[in-house]
Amino acid sequence: MARQGRHGATRRQPKGVAFDRWLDRVVTVAVLTAMVIGLAAVAAHWLL
Questions:
Q1: Buried b (16+ CB within 10 A) or exposed e, 15-45
Q2: 1-48: per-residue pLDDT in tens?
Q3: Is the N end or the C end of the chain the one with fewer CB atoms within 10 Å?
Q4: What dihedral do alpha carbons 34, 37, 41, 42 form, nearest 10°?
């Protein structure tokens, strides 16, 4: 039997990996910022 190619969720990373990592960081910072601002707004609404 001939060996088949690898199948699965993890595969070789394409050449644009650096851009993906940069984009992941930007999205993470944006989400965390939005969560902090949202929590601050809720806290201000409750306290004021």
A1: eeeeeeeeeeeeeeeeeeeeeeeeeeeeeee
A2: 556 666 667 666 667 778 788 999 999 999 999 999 999 999 999 998
A3: N
A4: 60
Structure token digits, residue 31: 């989400």
- How many beta carbons lie within 10 A of that of residue 3, not counting itself? 5
Place of tokens 């989400």: 31
**35/48 Cα distance (integer angstroms):** 20
d(CA 43, CA 9): 41
Strand ranges (E), 1-48: none
0.70 cut: is pTM over it? no
